[in-house]
Every structure is written in C-alpha cells, then in structure tokens.
Amino acid sequence: MGQAAEWHHRERWGLILAGGDGLRLRPLTRLIAGDERPKQFCSVLARESLLEQTRRRAALAIPPARTLVVLTQTHERYYAPLVTGMPPHCAIVQPENRGTAAAILYGVLRIAATEPLGAVAVLPSDHYVSDDSVFMGHVAAAFSAVRRRPELVALLGITPESAETEYGWIEPAGPIPGSALFRVARFWEKPVRVLAQVLLDRGCLWNSFVMVARIPALLAMIRSAAPDLERAFAAVQPMLGTVAEHGAVRALYRKLTPLSFSDDVLATRPANLAVLPVEGVRWSDWGQPKRVMETLGRLGIEPAWAGRAAAQLA
Predict the structure, then answer these.
(1) Where are the alpha helices (H) located in the chain, listed in sequence order?
(2) Which of 211, 152, 207 is nearest to 179 (CA)?
(3) Comparing C-alpha atoms, which of 129, 126, 98, 136 is closest to residue 14?
(4) Over residues 60-87, mean pLDDT
(5) Three-state SS annotation for 162-223
(6) Lowest pLDDT segment from 87-91, 131-135, 260-264, 303-307
(7) Are 214 and 118 in contact (CB under 8 A)?
(8) How far is it, in rounded angstroms, from Cα 65 to Cα 63?
(9) Could you tell me the pLDDT band of residue 305, with boundaries at 50, 70 and 90?
(10) Are 16 and 70 in contact (CB under 8 A)?
(11) 3-class SS at 33?
(12) Rounded to whole angstroms, how far apart are CA atoms 109 and 192?
C-alpha cells in the first residue's frame, strides 16, 4: 500500500447504529431469543447477532479500532457480552434512545474529538447483505469519492429488485463530474404500489441509510437541518472524552426531542447530498418480520424457529 493510500485508509472511521428499540421486529425476535432484546442483539441467521455481523462486515473496509458502536443504556444486559472484547472507546452509550439524529451526532462528535477532518461511514445494524465484500467495496468507493469531493455526503442507494412499498426511495439527478456519485433529486418515503412501480421503472434506488462523509460535511448538514440539536450538543462537546461526559450527556438527553435523521435531516434535501448506486448485492432492511421471512425463503434456509414464526406471524 502506497503512502497516500495508507493515509486514506487510516483516516476512515465507522459508526454503527445499535441504539434502537427494534419494536417492529419484536414479535419475531421474541420467538428467536425468548426475551425482549432488540433485533441488533439477536442471532437471526447464524450464531452471530446482527450487530456482530455488522461489525465483521465493517472490518472489511474500516479498522475495528476506529469503528464505534452507538448503544443505549437500557439495553446493557444484551450488549454487555458483545462489547467485552472491544476497545472501551468504541462503545458510545446513550442514556436514552432519542432517535437516529442524536445517535449520529453524538457518534460523529466523538470521532471529531480525535480526528476532526476524518471520514466516517454510518452503518445501521439491522440489514441483510448477501455479499459483504461487494457491499463494503461500495463503501470504500464512497470513501474515495468524498476524499476527492469533501463537501459531499454520499448515501448508498441499492439497485432495487421490486416495487417495494415499505422502503424509502432515492431519485437520482445528474452525475457529479469526476466521481461515481449522482445528485439527489428527491426522496420518496414508502410509496404506494403504483408509484413504487413508477420509481422502479424510472431507475430510482432503495435508500439503504448507509452514508459516507467527511466529518465537517456531515456536521454542516446536521447544523443546517437540525440547528437546535446541533446547539444542544455544542454545549457538551468540550466535555466529550472527559470524566464530565457521562453526567453532561445524561442531562442533555433528558431535554432532547427525538429526531429521525432520515425524516428530519435527509428529507430536507441538503445541497451537499449525493447517492452512490450499489449493484451486485442483495440487500434487505430487516425492520419487519415479513422481510426476514422473505429473505430466508429466497436463501432456502429454515432455522429451528422458522416453523413457529411462520405459524404465529401468519
């Protein structure tokens, strides 16, 4: 690896979102695990939990020591065994779940305290990916793209297989010169069937919610779309990484209004937003039991719990 390429690799960071409550998938995860654990701590396809699979996938392009995981304190009994072998700085524990916007901003600010000009890939922990290497190859391509165009935030858009009505869609605009990226014309959130077919025919993409950006570009996007959230975190930013962080963040979260990064930030269509089409990968957002069962059907896999799940979820 040349010096420039090595530096490019060293400036990469990962931020895995694992702080959600997983309520929509709870009927299935309760059957699988026998308890109330959120889906990211559940082993669906193999012995590994979805979070462990996401960390292993991320490691194909991002050093594990620079891959942080955003968690929520109320889930400690489920995540404690999973973080035992992680460097302490890699676990970011929120006192409460206040939505994906707060989780992302908290994580990005923690990274910025160490490497303010670095680049980060934001990765949800509840996705099925058929080929980890191909998928993370696209993430690596996005890292390269934002290195050349540091003002951009690159979303990964999945080439769709069907007129899906339960996903968000991205409508690409014109190509961005000197990159594989496209501008974003608009978002379509959970379209009705007729519109979903139109979007499929028009060449639109499923929104994976995986994004790659330089730290300053991502912070600028949040500052523009959610200024109150940014100001709230600015008050505790000097305490991040100190003994005062825990108390300051706990007090902050008690006052926060929950915000969705997708609805309250991305949907405002920031000018610096771009999309990178992802091809050669089958992908699914496991937000609902039927998506998990559909994936198992395509793979021809029938875990021990599948029969019970099919009967109870029918």
Answers:
(1) 3-10, 26-33, 50-58, 76-83, 100-114, 132-148, 193-201, 215-225, 227-234, 245-255, 261-264, 289-299, 306-313
(2) 152
(3) 136
(4) 94
(5) CCCCCCEEEEEEEECCCCCCEEEEEEEECCCHHHHHHHHHCCCEEEEEEEEEEHHHHHHHHH
(6) 303-307
(7) yes
(8) 5
(9) confident
(10) yes
(11) helix
(12) 37
Q: If DSSP codes are grouped into helix, strand and coil, which group holds residue 120? A: strand
Asked if 188 and 309 touch (Cβ cutoff 8 Å), the reply is no
Could you tell me the pLDDT band of residue 6, with boundaries at 50, 70 and 90?
very low
Q: Tell me the pTM.
A: 0.94
Q: Are strands 67-72 and 12-17 parallel, antiparallel or unpaired?
A: parallel
**Mean pLDDT rounded to a whole number for the chain:** 92
Give the mean model confidence (pLDDT) for residues 227-240: 96
Tokens of 307: 């029969």
Please report, in angstroms and rounded to a whole number, the separation of the first and last CA atoms in the chain. 53
- Give CA separation, 136 vs 3, 36, 38, 62, 133, in Å: 22, 31, 25, 9, 5
Torsions phi, psi of 98, nearest 5?
A: -120, 30
Alpha-carbon distance values, 262 to 104, 242, 268 (Å): 11, 30, 9
Residue (of 154, 159, 183) closest to 169 by Cα position:
159
Angle formed at CA 15 by CA 14 and CA 21, multiple of 5 degrees:
150
Return d(Cα 214, Cα 220) in angstroms, integer: 10
pLDDT exceeds 50 at position 2:
no
Note the pLDDT of residue 84: 86
Mean per-residue pLDDT, 257-262: 95
Please answer whether residues 159 and 277 qualify as being in contact, where contact means their C-beta atoms are separated by less than 8 angstroms: yes
Residue 183, both tokens:
């501008």
> Using CA atoms, how far apart are residues 176 and 276, in angstroms rounded to an integer?
10
How many whole angstroms separate alpha carbon 171 and alpha carbon 175? 12
